[in-house]
Amino acid sequence: MIIRSIATEFLTQLREYPIVTVIGPRQAGKTTLVRSVLPEYEYVSLETPETRQFALDDPKAFLKRYVGNVIFDEVQRVPHLLSYLQGIVDQSGRQGQFVLTGSHQLVLRAAITQSLAGRTGILHLLPLSIAELTAAGIRFDDFAEYIHHGFLPRIYDQQQRPYTAYANYYQTYVERDVRQLIHLKDANLFEKFIKLLAGRVGQIINYQSLASDVGVDSKTVKQWLSILEASFIVFALPPYFENFGKRVIKSPKYYFTDTGLLSYLLDIEKPSQVARDPLMGSLFENLVVLEALKTRYNQGLSANLYFFRDYQGNEIDLLFKSGSQLTGVEIKAAATWNSSFKKGLQRFADTNAALTRRYVVYSGERMAFSDGVEALPYTNVAEIFN
């Protein structure tokens, strides 16, 4: 089993809160994490129909069955349980009494806000990171291999073929969850939408253009995007426009939380096709931005990640804000260094805001320059955000 970096923060929060909630995509390893770290806890899956029905019908009698420490898996299936847990933890005064997992953040966040505010720590667990794979002795020679294989633990634990695994993942989880959430009548229309979204990965979203290509209105596109975000299929990278007035772009970019699913949606069946794909640069960018997000979440921290672009086309691929300090990151799929990679960083620092640190992430060797810019291989992205 691959050790998860978030385990340290998970144990810390168990000492600080009566309840710890771990949320993230399906099959990201939430259940494996909490059960392996807490083998002494009783485990209850609310995906089991009989268990879920009991919890729905008589929550008080259901909870009386569990007197010790308990893991409730996929608790978004019975969100009203959280109001009953509130009374239990307030009475017991014990830390780390309950662990909750969930794969739909809108439902869970609403229930937490209503019932468990101040009583639960919240952690986001995304699929495996490059650093976690490396620590487990799993390395690929090329970024195309990482993109194609994706990062679902099951692919590595069970040595599954990536394209087939993600085809099954899409049909088993993505389509099923989306159908439940939006009462989808036409699966083909939604599949067209998500594949068109994959084709626009890393681009500034144009809701009207996407809606027109799908054949629905922009309101529907926004609703479907919110469902994909809530289900951890995609995430939005917001623009950074602090104090920059009206000169900058204020629409987000969207990326996928697993590059393997993205590859499947783009019909990439083997790693060699990544380099020939017209979206190669966007695929590499998705990989790097995702590694940054995983690093932040694995520390139990907010993302604080942004991009910048103004209407003159000047841009920074990734900005990271910590306190008043701003770090700029340019992302290039190239393996050979070119001094032009640094230009955007210098232009931003000269015209918008000072950058405390400046990086170029690419697929070449580590280098440091006299002007303070550092070039890092994509496998070392986590260093920037630790």
Automatic annotation (TrEMBL):
It comes from the Bacteria. InterPro entries: AAA_14, DUF4143, P-loop_NTPase. Pfam families: AAA_14, DUF4143. Residues 175-333 form the DUF4143 domain. SUPFAM superfamilies: P-loop containing nucleoside triphosphate hydrolases. Residues 18-133 form the AAA domain. This is AAA+ ATPase domain-containing protein.
